[in-house]
Amino acid sequence: GNNFTNINIDNNFRHNNNFAGNPNCWGGHPWWGAGNCHGWHHGHWGYGWNSGHWNNSWWDDDDFGEGFMWGIAAWSLGSMIYNTGYQSYSNPYPAPPVQNSTVVYTQPMTVTAAATPPGDEKAYAEADTKSQDAMEISRAAFKNGDYTAALRAADEAIAATPGDVTLHEYRGLCFFALGKYADAAGVLNPVLASGPGWGWDTMVGFYGSSSSYEEQLRKLEAWVKASPDRAEGHFLLGYHYLVCGHMEKAYEQFDQTSKLQPADGIARQLRDLTKDSLPDDGQSDGAKPPRPEPVPKEKLTGTWTSDASGGKITFKLQEDGNFTWNFAGASGQPTELKGTWGLNDKGLLVMNADNSQMVSAVSLDGDAKMKFLIVGGPDGDPGLTFNKG
Predict the structure, then answer these.
(1) Span 128-149, mean pLDDT?
(2) Rounded distance, CA 374 to CA 358, Å?
(3) Mind listing the domains of the chain with CATH numbers?
(4) Average pLDDT over the chain, rounded to whole?
(5) Helix or strand or coil: residue 25?
(6) Which of 3, 23, 117, 214 has an alpha carbon 20 to 30 Å from 124's alpha carbon atom?
(7) In this structure, are strands 311-317 and 335-343 parallel, antiparallel, or unpaired?
(8) Global pTM?
């Protein structure tokens, strides 16, 4: 497992076998440490750790699946999942930029955070104090129903610490409270591309009473009903149902979002994720897929390439147990990952590099085509296809 020891690290991350321990993958304020940074943060939604999701996976043996967080793979691997080309991202919902900041919500928040490092210890402390002070002002205004003032102060907090993912989630809440639903969706999409949303205790803590939140939720529901073709409304409502723990309703909203806006890859992953959580309708026989024959290690060694979305991946698995992974994107600097690799007793490919670990299911079609699927995502993850040579 990973080497994080702070007791305030979210357990969804602490016990995960897929993890990125390099701070460069998260920036200064990762989602899994929000409870340590903010006294008002009381955890993420409670479905992020659910080994029952894995019951239909061939490699689950009632205990192995417990080592993998149930969620989108990016939630445990941070910006690595995007920088290596495994997944690409685009935000289909425009969002207002943060005042006095470079944040424009076109990238997952982990990518934005990694691009804005907090600086040295003194600069970090000064920025953090400024951000915390602005958030105190914002929270007081929010609780009093002055959502415009709350948003203005939230922008000041984010300008000081732009890599703090949970502050962006709060900014989305301000837009929701103001009835600016499209703006809220535009902020929350890259937030959920980076980590799970808040739990109910965190959400309701911003309000003077739960009835105040429920009144706003009913307004959103009415807006979505009156505007059934607006994908951003369905996405936002799905997010709020997640926070409230209404998984079936969340699935319905993310499913509708995916139909209306096929470019929303996050809604599609959340649809598949919430579908996996629903009770068995009795139509499934509950049988696991047959376990494939393990791929011999010698057949994996060599150079593999994949035309990933937005670039090309060159993946070299060496006989001595070392690997290199190079991703050349359409823009920006190439990403290179180096480390060691091997097969565990389940036949899963385990890669270790730079205080990070990635576990994947691999299969071969002949000797020259490999399917590569990171373990830890919802059903429906297409993974990558590599060709040898």
Answers:
(1) 96
(2) 7
(3) 11-277 (1.25.40.10), 297-388 (2.40.128.640)
(4) 81
(5) helix
(6) 3
(7) unpaired
(8) 0.80
